[in-house]
Amino acid sequence: MLSREDNQLLTDTNPGSPMGELFRRFWLPVIMSEELPGPDSVPLRVRVMGEDLIAFRDTDGGVGLVDAYCPHRGAPMFFGRNEENGLRCVYHGWKFDVNGECVDLPNAPEGDTFRHKIHIKSYPCQDKGDLIWAYMGPAEKKPAFPDFEWTKLPRSHRYVTKFVEQCNYLQAMEGDYDPSHARFLHSTMDQSTATGSANGAPGPGRNNPQGEMAANEPYPRAVGTRRVTAANANTAQPRGGGLSAKLVDFEQAMLSAQVTETGDGKYQANVGVTWWMPLFCTAGISMPGHFASNMRIPVDNESLLFYRLRWSWEPITQEQLAEYKTGGYTHPELIPGTWTPKANLQNDYNIDRVAQKYFSYTGIKTFPLQDIALIEAQWGPVSHHWEEHLVSSDYMIIYVRRRLIKAAKELANGIEPVGPSRPDVYRFHREIAIGNTPEEAIEAAKTAGMRPLLPERLPQLVVA
Ligand code: FES
Ligand SMILES: [Fe+2]
């Protein structure tokens, strides 16, 4: 259980907070590239970790992310003219480039000399992987860009979009390494309806392929074989990061290892990454051969923008793209012209109680909405983590909280986090390896997982 102090530490990312300072040591996506479609395009309001900013793309294509307010007399830069490599405040004409330098101060005779003393707050940006990333920490601590290989692939190999969630980043992110929720939240009632018997006993179905039910199960429709017992704990969640997975501490990441005996006295370890410091996750359904990346960037402490990505070493086909856009497995339908889901907290996610009674576990359409509905209001937009009762299946949640608290406290005491100086860790990919012991197999998979894949998969993209 978290103390109220640690809860505050974990959930507050506003400027000056310990977690806010930790997050500001990393490159983070702050808008989609398409939101600044071309040189001198319309400036954009951006709010990140409680800071109000304006993003713009200058005449040469460079991206600026500056204070929302002009340093002269605080007028809104949103109304600025984006022209000739700079954003000009339209109140008295002061103009700033993407680095925050004042390049013109035309309303006073001392402007040509005084302007050199004037800067607008500005953060360095990089346009990578269809996202604009910003570094919002101290200039002298700016790290190398994390080695996410998907950021180096052509646009045709990615599908990325975003949507708003009306809650704190932590409770949203924790859904990605919460292995016991899917068999309830994302399931259907088919074990007791279409193929079930007339008396309500479960028949074979997607969640119950053998049509079996636990002995003495008093709640077959709602629980049935979803129940996790000591006997089935190892098979309750076969996907990576499940209940049976071994958690492996690794540099700036949380790895999950599934270890099995090979039959000839050796062990096989299947090792993947579940979370990288401080907020990069990999959970989610994707097409065969595709990979997921989830990034929840705090807008403030009570809302976030969820950048959700699918990528592949092969170009994503039109059919696959259409499925991602409309299939309901990964991205909710949005209100046109906004990043807000049509079904949301204000309309109870359009829950259908008839569907819930007979067909789906929740009555809420689409997987992402099911997650969002159970995440956005956990005692409210900032969960009362000190009131929780965690169990063994919450082991990854406990682990990540400890890592974040430790890193934030260390930084507050002057110890820099390791993550920003290890960009190579961010290219870690799933690998399977064999060893004489479980530990040996895991170590071999870890070493293989750090190998860059880009040169062998798409050598034409690697410039010597
Ligand atoms: S307030 Fe912006 S130029 Fe005066
Ligand atoms: Fe989920």
In percent terms, what proportion of residues is strand? Answer: 15-25%
The total count of helices amounts to 11
Mean pLDDT: 91
Query: How many strand elements?
Result: 18
Structural features, described:
By secondary structure, the chain is α+β, with helices and mostly antiparallel strands. The protein has two domains: 113 residues, 3-layer Sandwich (Rieske Iron-sulfur Protein), CATH 2.102.10.10; 309 residues, Naphthalene 1,2-dioxygenase Alpha Subunit, Chain A, domain 1, CATH 3.90.380. Helices cover 18% and strands 22% of the residues. The strands form four sheets. Strands 11, 12, 13, 14, 15, 16, 17 and 18 form an eight-stranded antiparallel sheet that branches. Strands 5-6-7-8 form a four-stranded antiparallel sheet, with no helix packed on it. About 5% of the residues have low confidence. The chain binds FE2/S2 (inorganic) cluster and fe (ii) ion (FE2). The site of FE2/S2 (inorganic) cluster has 9 residues, from loops.
